[in-house]
Structure formats: C-alpha cells, structure tokens
Amino acid sequence: MAYTEEDLKKELETKEYEYGFVTDIESDTFPIGLNEKIVQAISKRKEEPKWMTDWRLKAFKAWQEMEEPEWANVKYSKPDFQKISYYSAPKGKDKYDSLDEVDPELLKTFEKLGISINEQKKLTGVAVDIVVDSVSVATTFKDTLSKKGIIFCSISEAIKNHPELVKKYIGSVIPQKDNFYAALNSAVFSDGSFCYIPKGVRCPMELSTYFRINQAGTGQFERTLVIADKDSYVSYLEGCTAPSRDENQLHAAVVELVALDGAEIKYSTVQNWYPGNKNGKGGVFNFVTKRGICHTNSKISWTQVETGSAVTWKYPSCILKGDNSIGEFYSIAVTNNYQQADTGTKMIHIGKNTKSTIISKGISAGKSQNSYRGLVQINSRAENARNFSQCDSLLMGNKCGAHTFPYIEVKNKTAIVEHEASTSKIGEDQIFYCNQRGIDTEKAIALIVNGFSKEVLNKLPMEFAVEAQKLLEISLEGSVG
Amino acid sequence: MLTIDNLHVSVEGKPILNGINLDVRAGEVHAIMGPNGSGKSTLSSVIAGNEAYEVTKGDIIYQNENIIELAPEERANKGIFLSFQYPVEIPGITVTNFIKTAINSNLRARNEDEMPANKMLKKIREIAQLLEIDSKFLSRSLNEGFSGGEKKRNEIFQMAMLEPSLSILDETDSGLDIDALKVVASGVNKLKNKDNAVILITHYQRLLDYIVPDYVHVLHEGKIVKSGGKELAHELEEKGYDWIK
Predict the structure, then answer these.
(1) Which terminus, N or C, of chain B has the lesser number of Cβ atoms within 10 Å?
(2) Which chain A residues have a beta carbon less than 8 Å from that of B101?
C-alpha cells in the first residue's frame, strides 16, 4: 500500500519527538558500496541526460585516483566508502505541498529554540527548499519567484528543465578534480538546490535550503549552484540537522556561487548537524567545499554559524576574478565536548582593486579542538588589492584548544594586507559579575559568547540571527561546572 | 535587614576575616572604613557570594534567611547589589542589553513577568538623566574602554535600575573626580529610602561628605575594631588609621 501524506501526518501526531530522533518512514535506499554502476544508477534514477552521467563518471574516475586529505588539524577514523549507501529517498510521493507535512523535526528543533519556523517563514516570506537524505522534497514560493524570472528548484529539476544553465556553470567554480570530497560529490550527488537570478533582478525574499539526514548508513552529498546574473541580488540561507546516531555519518557537499558583473550574493549557513554525544561517539563528518567566483564589480559574502558536526572541514572561499570585486567571510565556529573543526576561507585576489574581509570567531569548550585556516593570496596582476583579517578565539575551561593557521601570499607590491588575532578566556570574574546582577551562569556564558560573536551575528539576516543566538546557547549547554 | 554573625573567611587557607559582627537595618547607611588589606573588599565579596572565598565559620542572615549556602545570582535575585571596585568588561554587550538581561533575569527568578520594552526604555532614560549619563554611553559595550569614572557611574546606573534592598558600594569613590563624585553621591541619596540600606566601603572620608552615614565601622586585620557615628570618620581623617591600631 502506498504511503500517503495522511499516513505520515498521523504517524507524526502519535509520535513522541525528541531532538535527534529518526523519522520512521519507508525509504528507497541503494545497497552500500560505490562503483561505476552505482554512479550510473544514481544518474538513471534521476533521469539525467547523458552529458550529466558522463560528467559524473569522469568525476568518479578522478576520485578513484585521489587520496583523502590529511593536512587538516583533525583526527578521525576515515570512513569506509564501500560501507555507505549513496542514495536514499523517502518512498511515496515525490513532492509534498507544504512544510508542515514533511519536516516535523524541523518544527520540533526550532520549538526548542523558541521559534516557530513555519509561521515565521510565512510571515517574512522565505522560500524554502527541503532536502531529506538524498532528495529535495519540497520547494515553496515557486510561483511568486517565477514571476520575476527567478528559478529556484532542486538541482535534479534544473538538470531536466534548465540544462543549458547547469551545463555551463556546474563545475565551473569547483572542478570535479578539485579535491577528494568534491570529486566524490561530483560523482554521487543526489540532490541539492539550484538558483538563478536574472539580470537586474533583486530577489524579493530570502531563499533557503534545509538539509536533513534521516536514513541510517547513508551519506549525504548535496550540490548547490547559485547563479546571480548581471546586477542582480540574492540572499541565500542553508540550515541542517541530523538524528543522533552512534555511528558517524558522512556529509560531503559542494556549493558553487557565480556572481556575474555587478551582482551580489549573500550566502548564510546555520550548520547544526549532530555533533556526537558527550563522549565523542557518533556525529556527522562534515567535509564541504564551498567557493564562489566574483566577476567585475560583484560581491560575495559568506556568513556561517557552525555549531554541529563531529568533524568539520570547510573553507568557503572567493575567487576575486573581476576588477573591483569584493569577497567577505564571517564565521562563528563553536566546538564542545569532542568536536573538531578546521574551518576558514580562501580569498584569491586576481582582479585590480579587489577587496576582502575575513572575520572569524572560534569558540571552544569541553575537550574540543577549533582551528582557523585561511589563505589570502594576492596575484601579481591584482593592483591595489586589500585584505583585512581578524581571527578571535574564545576558550572555556582548560581542556580545549584553539589554533590559527593564516597563510598570506602576496605577489603585488601595492597590496595592503592586515591580520589581527586574539585569544581570550571567559573569566570567572566576568561570570561572577553577571551572577551578581542576578544572571545565572549558563545565561552569563551565552551573553559573553553572544557579545564575542556579535560582529558575525550582525551579518546574518534578522530572523536567523535570533535562531543562531539560541543555537549558540544550546551548543554550549553544560559546558561549565 | 542584614545580620552578620561571627563571620570567619579564608582565601586559600589564609584567614582574612576573623569574626565580623554587623547589624544593618532598613533605612540605614553604614560606612566600613579601614586601611588597605584590612578585609573590606573581602567582606563585600562574601556578602555577594563570591565562591573564591571560603566561609569557615559564622552566618550571614539577610531578610531573616541564612544566605551562606546561596549562589551569587540567588542573592542578587533577593535584592543584594554589589557595586564593584573593578567592574569587568564584557565586549559586544551594550550597557542597555546587559541591564535588560539582568532585570529580566531577576523578574523571572521572582516568578514575575519580564519588563515590557517600552517600560524598560522609559526607566533607562529617567535614570540616565538622574545620573547625567549621555545616551551614547548606553549603547557602548559594557565597561569596554570606559574611564574609571564611567565604570563607577555605570555601576550606580545598574544599581538604580535594579532597585536593590541592600546595596554595597565597594570603593565607589576611587577613580572619581569631584564632579563625578557629586553626581554619583546625589544619585545614591535620591535612591535611598526607609526600605533599603546601603553599605559604603571606603578608604577615605571624602565620599562620606556627600553620602552621610548613620554608622561608621573601622575594620582592621579582619575585625571591626571600632564603631561609631559619622564623627568617627572625621576623627579617622585627622588621626589616621594608626590611631585605632
């Protein structure tokens, strides 16, 4: 018997939800293992044209020759890529009509955060694409957007309906062979979001993708492609969660941004994958490649709040190819218990008068390790390039670590590159001061952390700044005492 | 309101207070004076509940309840306020945001509703005016880059906002020029009423010209060695602390 929306609804009503629960829905999951046949099968399941299948196979070939990188300041047992299933989709209907029916976890998660995301989304008009495991299950506000000529859909749909755009831009910023995880993603990506903003159009609402890993033993490999045509503007958000599981889950995403002349893309991430339990068991391996290319007079701004995942390996970067282009990176990375994060950015200055800003805030608690790794590269033709970097670390307790690895390569004498770094500890005197004003210790820490992160929180779209603040509090729960 | 009974306090095994007795009733102002190292600041920290200090003996009774075992925030919620000698910086949190968080934390602890934003803003404006605080000051990060005088004024601002029953002002006069001292003192005087009490901890008599105490106690080597009326402060000023040793 087919599983209907009604059944799902009923099931969810009678279910007791918890943070990190699993949705018990039937899934269509591929057998574990990876070979050419699996790659072809994914492509076939997605009803892709031949050029796409070939593109994947080329990536798979490249991946087979590559080694998993080891330079990052993280320790974990490498995933066995033959023990993962590369495709999983909720059975039944391809698309649901509304958010409520699809993703009650999201609601529950945000209930804990004190936000009814549904209501809020409707009020503020945020268009959402939902990806559960390997497939996109719902995209909202499609009609409103299409009136302006904006394309916002799953990448699978884009491959079918807008092949000319996908063909032109996919892999143009992050080639298949770019790195181990990007190659893997290129071979097996199952879904993700696609967005195209036409010339001169200012996208009237926030576009958002929400990712959820549900099925056990599957990897999530989503691919996002955002193209902002000349003089357009878009603000894009992504959020993610996963159930608590004892085994590690792999998430290897690729995000490519293309800002054509005069365009602006603002890309914000609130990453809350399951971080593993207090003893470091389980959690998501988050190995993500994100990069944007800026053409003349364009701007790309990355903002990320990273609170989840057992291991994070992620460097949202900008290639400042066009003259006068601007790249920005604002990041808050929180690690608690046994979490490890190695995150930062690359700013590649190629065009004249290019500018980049890096603000990184690392917060470490428990026995976690938090590293900033960044590259500022000024090429020989990049006259008058400017960079400002600021990396601040905040430590809680005596068992965690904060590390900074800044790389600066300057090949043009006119460049001005500034780097500032600081490390501080939350002081007992600060906590006592707050206590004395009637503020309990947990709240005091949240307050101090929020103050520390303020410059980055301010860069998030309003409604998500509140969410991110609450998320910081939850992530650091139990980090004192 | 406050009764301290035979209070002994040590820090890392070293005794600092050696049997303090003190009675403070509602409506009173007490000044605690004494040379450096006599234990004045320790006494204020211990009343506020700073866990860096170990109470080895004695009781602190506040509003008929022994508060020795209470956490600092619980004491604060019950209306005890300490104006710090060295207020700490909290970067990124504005004066307004901090006081709002503090007031609402106290209200919640007392099972009351949070203060509505308009009421909060009105109160902030009134008190800022009373203490001659510029509105720009309120949107600066808490104590970050503040001058000594600004820090102290900010402490009194918070005191006025929180309306405590018992205020302990630890060396509030240090770092203040005479004009700032007058403003702060007149603020304290305006906030004083028959239901609250103030303990002034000070090294010098200067502050007591502006906030007149009902009682003056002299602390020496962790004990109150002399108590009297306001004239005792003048006597100390003339004769120095050697006189009471």
Answers:
(1) C
(2) 439, 443, 447
For residue A119, is pLDDT > 60? Answer: no
Query: Are A257 and A298 contacting, i.e. CB atoms less than 8 angstroms apart?
Result: no
Q: Which residues of B touch A432 (CB under 8 A)?
A: 50-52, 72
Domain boundaries, chain A: 5-475
**Residue B101 touches partner A, C-beta closer than 8 Å:** yes
Compute the nearest-CA separation of B237 from chain A (Å). 32
**Contact with chain A for residue B179, Cβ under 8 A:** no
Rounded to whole angstroms, the Cα distance separating A452 from A437 reads: 20
Contacts of B119 (CB under 8 A, 6+ apart): none
B50, B91, B106 ranked by CB distance to A438: nearest: B106
Chain A residues near residue B87 by CB distance under 8 angstroms: 433
Residue B87 contacts A where some CB pair is shorter than 8 Å: yes
- The DSSP result for A219-233, as a single string, is -B-BEEEEEE-TT-E
pLDDT of A138 strictly over 60: no
pLDDT tens-digit series, residues A429-463: 999 999 999 999 888 988 998 899 888 888 877 76
- The neighbour count for residue B186, using CB atoms within 10 Å, is 15
How far is the alpha carbon of B101 from chain A, nearest alpha carbon, in Å? 7
Q: CB A437 to CB B109 under 8 A? A: no
Across all residues in chain A, what is the average pLDDT? 81
In angstroms, how far is the first alpha carbon of chain A from the final one? 53
Architecture of the B2-244 domain: 3-Layer(aba) Sandwich (3.40)
A331 in helix, strand or coil? strand
CB contact at 8 A, A449 and A394: yes
Cα dist from A83 to A26, A32, A79, A218, whole Å: 20, 5, 8, 9
Nearest to A439 among B91, B92, B105 (CB): B105
Flag if A438 and B77 touch (Cβ within 8 Å).
yes
Q: List phi, psi (to 5°) of A231.
A: 55, 30
Residue of chain B with shortest Cα separation from A438: B73
CA B201, B205, B211, B212: dihedral to nearest 10 degrees?
110
For A177, the 3-state DSSP assignment is coil
In chain B, domain spans: 2-244
For B166-195, the pLDDT digits (tens) are 999 999 988 888 888 888 899 899 989 999
Distance of alpha carbon A251 from alpha carbon A255, whole angstroms: 13
Segment among A201-210, B61-70, B198-207 with least mean pLDDT: A201-210
Neighboring chain A residues of B93 at a CB cutoff of 8 Å: 447-448, 450-451, 454
Exposure string of A394-422, with b = 16+ CB inside 10 Å and e = fewer, is bbbeeebbbbbebeeebeeeebebeeeee
List the single residue in A with minimal CA-CA distance to B106.
A438
Cβ–Cβ gap A438/B52 under 8 Å = no
**Backbone φ and ψ of A252, nearest 5°:** -130, 95
Residue A315 tokens, joined = 């460097």
Q: Do A436 and B48 touch (CB under 8 A)?
A: yes
Tens of pLDDT along B33-67?
Answer: 988 888 999 999 999 999 889 999 999 999 999 99
User: Could you say which of B89, B91, B102 has the minimum Cβ distance to residue A439?
Assistant: B102
How far is it, in rounded angstroms, from Cα A27 to Cα A145?
31
The reported pLDDT for the residue numbered A284 is 82
